[in-house]
Design brief:
The complex is a heterodimer of chains A (492) and B (472).
Chain A: H1 5-22, H2 30-53, E1 62-70, E2 74-80, H3 82-105, H4 110-129, H5 133-142, H6 144-154, H7 159-188, H8 193-199, H9 203-220, H10 229-236, H11 239-264, H12 266-271, H13 273-292, H14 297-318, H15 321-352, H16 363-366, H17 368-381, H18 388-403, H19 405-429, H20 447-465, H21 468-491
Antiparallel strand pairs in A: 1-2
Helix pairs in contact in A: 1-2, 1-4, 2-3, 2-4, 3-4, 3-11, 3-15, 3-21, 4-5, 4-6, 4-11, 5-7, 6-7, 7-9, 7-10, 9-11, 10-11, 10-14, 11-14, 11-15, 13-14, 13-19, 14-15, 14-18, 14-19, 15-17, 15-18, 15-20, 15-21, 17-19, 17-20, 18-19, 18-20
Chain B: H1 9-27, H2 32-52, E1 58-60, E2 65-67, H3 69-95, H4 102-119, H5 123-141, H6 148-179, H7 184-190, H8 196-212, H9 221-228, H10 231-254, H11 261-283, H12 289-309, H13 313-337, E3 341-342, E4 345-346, H14 356-359, H15 361-375, H16 381-395, H17 399-424, H18 438-453, H19 460-466
Antiparallel strand pairs in B: 1-2, 3-4
Helix pairs in contact in B: 1-2, 1-4, 2-3, 2-4, 3-4, 3-10, 3-13, 3-18, 4-5, 4-10, 5-6, 5-10, 6-8, 6-9, 8-10, 8-11, 9-10, 9-12, 10-12, 10-13, 11-12, 11-17, 12-13, 12-16, 12-17, 13-15, 13-16, 13-18, 13-19, 15-17, 15-18
Classes of the chains: A mainly alpha (492), B mainly alpha (472).
Amino acid sequence: MNFPILSTLIFLPLISSIFILLSKDKTTNNSSIYISLFSSFATFLLSLFLWYSLDFNTSEFQFVEEKSWINNFIKFKLGIDGISILFIVLTTFITPICIISCVNSIKVRVKEFLIAILILETFMIGVFCSLDLVIFYLFFEAGLIPMFLIIGVWGGPKRVYSAFKFFLFTLLGSVLMLVAIIVIYWLTGTTDITQIYEIKIPKEYQNLLWLAFFSSFAVKMPMWPVHTWLPDAHVEAPTAGSVILAAILLKMAGYGFLRFSIPMFPIASEYFTPLVYTLSIIAIIYTSLVALMQDDMKKLIAYSSVAHMGYVTLGIFTLTKQGIEGSIYQMISHGLISAALFLCVGVVYDRLHSRMISTYGGLVNYIPKYSFLFLVFALAALGLPGTSGFLGEFLVLAGTFQKSYLAAMLATFGVVLGAAYMLWLTKRVIFGVANNSEIKKLNDINKSEIIMLVSLAFLILFFGFYPLPLMETFNVSVNGLISDYETALASN
Amino acid sequence: MINNFNIILPEIFLSLSVFSILMIGVFIKNSFNLIFNLTMMIIIVTITIILSSPSNKEKIFLDSFIRDAFSNYFKILILLSSLFVLNSSKKFIIDNKLDKFEYPIIILLSILGMFFMVSSNDLILFYLGLELQSLSLYILASIDRDNLRSTESGIKYFVLSALSSGLLLYGCSLLYGFTGSTNFEAIANQLNRENTGAVFAMVFILVGLAFKVSAVPFHMWTPDVYEGAPTSITSYFAVVPKVAGLALLIKFMFVPFSNILLEWQTIIIFISIASMILGAVAAMVQKNLKRLLAYSSIGHIGYALAGVATGAISGYQSAIVYISIYVIMNIGAFSCLYLLKKDEQYKENISDLSGISKKHPLLAISLLIILFSLAGVPPLGGFFAKFYIFVAVLEKEMYALAIIGLLTTVMSAFYYLKIIKTIYFDDSIITFESTKNRSAQASIFASCTILITFFLYPSFLNNLVSLLFVSQ
């Protein structure tokens, strides 16, 4: 494969953002919107083509591109396998949805917003494609700039505080990762991860390096107790920002664990398993309880995200096939569900400019289509069988049971709590009596909102009933990951 | 002997041209424009002279003057940055009635001093060059002589700098006393760790040099001088003397003090950490942009010194790359200040930037790029500068230095973000005059383009810098 298809995929949104910059929109922003829609859709199709042409029967990296970048030091190396392709497709699928949603919700500086989203898409795809630690770090960190601006410029009243918190928390976590990356370079003489997998990092260094990577991923994930930036960022970010944050940015950390922490530091990963279990269980139970207490819809969903990410970390560090597959499944499905829920909040927020649960009630009587979709997403979020949310949690719990009964039992308790806050939210928002006269005047969802929400609902249900396409994609890669991990442990 | 004069040709050309344009200035009235343009031409011609000269190592005047790739690189960096600083500040100079013909001439004289500094291979020549540079800078700081703050900053700078020069000279004389030579290489051969007196001398010299690059704890003059001096002078101060100072520091570490590495390494590590921390903390509370940039420059010098502190060639190289990128960022940042003009006044408070993204989107996006780059966020140029430093630092397994350095990066990100917040998140208050300041805009454009596209070929500077230490 000589054509640099991954580079094309990465830089297509960036190039189209330059076109948007050059486009001369004065009164309307139509041409910007069309360019960005077209380019993000083209990126989506390209990623689908990649998914289609990817060979699922090998855990090797495919479509590898390699260019010398910094002399004798770092190569610009890209490549994908069965795990990363799913995140890439998720990214390219969510981005057009965000662009559609911004037509309704963003009123000022639309052009700049679209540019920020597209640049962010470039960085996000880059994160999932990079096979070099420095390149990964570059994309991982670069995403902070557009996200900082998205929260800060188009966000709510407390946007400055949230944007700062988001930026500084994430930066603080990742600088240690940078130290670790450079140390790895001096230990192994390379930052190419395929080579690092083979060279194997000396045992005595693994624990510290693992912790350095963990500090970055734990903030990004986010894990308890460094999750506090997330609710703030979500609440203040505009709808599209929340969607990207929940659906993709949080997945970078989970992906990072799978791609870097476990294969590079298998011994440390095993050593720190109890720590991750503890933090994950606390996250699941504590943040679920916190979610119960919220009176802001976005905040509630944000806390539920932390809880769901708790399942992901738990599943990854069971280091069993079910656990890891469940985690990946959970990440993809949470990407769809949380995106859908934030969009739902965005829909009513655009109309009534309130995120408070108490503002709403009895929506089902006035906007039935919306209420139906909301119900579907809420049920998916609590993991109802038949939705994609169920399978992820189920597999994670199945994996956890093999390793620790206690952890699994506590995590199961979290499922109950998850049902509690989601159902209670639905009850208060969708059902009940309308205590606000403005609700009676609400318009039901318009065409663009139907397109966004129905496509998400379709995928959530589709993958709930028919998980095979996803499972097939990452099956061999996960097997490879686990067998490498077990050989590394055995040879220790 | 006469054949060897081509070694010192740039200096000869520069001094002759300075004296000739001084004559022009004296005899022709209102000749600022003419002299300014001549100065630019002189700088460009000097650059071509240096570029066309070979870069093999040659010495002249009893081995006291040296020309090699190292000195050539720094001379070109000094000339290029002066060129951009001067070019972008022309309108500012005229608007603020600083258009005296002495202005560009004194700048050229200070450049001449720096040339001798980076080319010196002898304590005496080094000190002479340093003093020529410093004297020119004192005058420049107070060039707006009717302005109280400018005069004050000049006096302050003079008093403190004279003190540091005294210490430096004392260190030089001690060094001569203990080693019996003023030649750098001879000193290097004589010095060893048992020579306690020479270690003392080293400390004095380091203090003097730390003052010149405004590293903590010898930074006190920086914020006041930066704030008091006219912006055009501040931007010169922030860029050019730093380059020369750092070059000298590296030269001292590399040649005369190479045998007492452990002794000076400890001091440099301390200075570096102190600078990084103070630069990050003190800048947080600043309201004046120039003052903030002063503290930010202190912090940046701390990072460059972290590279020097490794005591390895790779560390020196990373420091040189760092200072080169720092120059690019600072030229851009100061050029932005020249565009903040309202009612015949140049604004310099952070609050004046409030909401300029709505009225001046291009200026806002340029500042955004420069500030994120200063903060060291990838994929901009500033990230690579820091990255190379930390690669070199971690190669020597100086973990504490690297981790403190990176934590201060986060802290300093806070105040850069604060400015970005003012620009992008706050409501617009002031509409600046949309004056045509093409030269400043060109500098901003050049700076931003380099910073954005740096990631395409990030080893460009490394390749250049890796040649500097080959011949030695």
